[in-house]
Write a structure and sequence with these properties.
The protein is of the alpha+beta class. The strands form three sheets. Strands 1, 2, 3, 4, 12, 13, 14 and 15 form an eight-stranded antiparallel beta sheet that branches.
């Protein structure tokens, strides 16, 4: 291969790589983005080690739809308001940079309050039914026993939430959700840094809606890089599992 052909070959490879990166960037920014679940705040719905796909188009687009949140615009385009019960990935109000995932409970104008362990939305108690099974969930390095409930939101959506049996957060102040903001909670109610502590989340901070678990491995039983132990840590039953 002469020098000219070598240079042309290198340039063609560079063009191919750049084209592939652009396509990947478009898919990641506008269609789907993968995320890793590092904490137990959404147990039992999402477990540490779950890897999920999040749809970026569901709520429209803001600057947070793109890598590094460039200041392209300060609102949302093609905006569609989320529904109660959606599992939403968002940038935290504290730094507008860190990605969190929680369940949307309160819409703009709603008032949310915990009273003796029950959730009230606009002074109406959320219907919930205790599930007669004993559950253990993680919280940091610890594991504790919880009561599991099926909760029914005002729009009819159902989900499972768990509460520490000792009732660590049974009563709160009343939270008012401003216009274009949302109130989000973790399903692991007593081990979640959510709107009770972070505040309401602006619609600009929404990143997307969690759709599917495409891979999951139990990090306690083994690291993904310890491939010889993957059969013990790989959660086959969670592969390509729809998220509710």
């Amino acid at each position: 291969m002469n020098k000219k052909n070598l240079i042309n070959s290198i340039l063609d490879n560079i063009k191919t790589i750049i084209g592939a990166l652009i396509i990947a960037l478009i898919i990641r920014s506008l269609i789907f983005q993968p995320f890793y679940i590092p904490s137990s705040s959404m147990e039992p719905t999402l477990l540490i080690g779950d890897r999920i796909f999040v749809s970026k188009y569901t709520y429209g687009y803001s600057k947070h739809s793109f890598p590094f949140s460039p200041s392209i615009f300060n609102e949302r385009i093609f905006y569609k308001r989320p529904d109660q019960g959606d599992l939403v990935v968002f940038k935290t109000p504290a730094d507008n940079r860190t990605d969190y995932i929680k369940r949307l409970i309160g819409l703009p104008g709603d008032e949310i309050q915990f009273i003796e362990g029950d959730i009230f939305i606009n002074d109406k108690k959320i219907i919930r039914k205790k599930i007669n099974t004993k559950n253990f969930v993680r919280c940091g390095k610890f594991s504790f026993q919880v009561d599991a409930y099926e909760e029914i939101l005002p729009n009819g959506k159902r989900h499972i939430a768990v509460y520490n049996e000792s009732g660590t957060l049974k009563n709160t102040k009343k939270f008012k959700v401003p216009e274009n903001h949302f109130f989000l909670l973790g399903d692991n109610r007593d081990c979640s840094k959510d709107s009770r502590f972070l505040g309401n989340v602006s619609f600009v901070n929404l990143v997307g809606k969690a759709r599917i678990i495409f891979f999951s491995n139990d990090t306690v039983k083994g690291s993904l890089f310890k491939f010889w132990n993957l059969k013990n840590s790989f959660r086959l039953d969670r592969t390509f599992k729809s998220i509710k």
